[in-house]
Amino acid sequence: MGRRAHMAQALLITTLAAWFVARSGFVFSGDYGPSGISPLSGVIAVGAVGGLAATVLLIGSRRPSSRAMPWVMAGQAALAFGPYLLMGEVWGPVAGAVVASVLFTMPRRISWLTAALLIALDVGLSAVFGEAGADGFALVGRLVIDVLVGSNLFGVMLLTDLTRRVAAERAAHAALAVAEERFDNAERLRVTLGTDLSSVVRLSRLGLDGEQARARLSEIAATARRAAHTARSIIDTRRQPSGGQTDPDAVSSPTTTISPRLAWSFTLATTVNCALLVLVNFAFYVQPSFAGWVLVLLTLAVSAVLQMYHGAPQVTGHPARRWRWTLPLHLVILTTAVAVSGPHFAPTITLAAGAVLYRWRPPWSFGVLVIVTAELLLVLRPGATFGDHVYLVAGLAGALIQVYAFCRLPEVARELAEAREGLARLAVVRERLRVTRDVHDLLGLSITGISLKCELITRLVDTDPARARREFDELAALALRGLADIQAAVSGTSELRFAEELRAVCSLLDASGIRTEVVVSAVALPADIDTLLATVVREAVTNVVRHATAGTCRITLTVRDEAARLRVADDGNPGRTVGAGTGLVNLGARLAAAGGRLDAEPDGDGFVLTAHVPLRPVEARLHPARLGRDPDRVDPVPGVEFGHR
Question: Which is nearest to 531 in space by CA: 493, 559, 561, 562?
Answer without folding.
Answer: 493
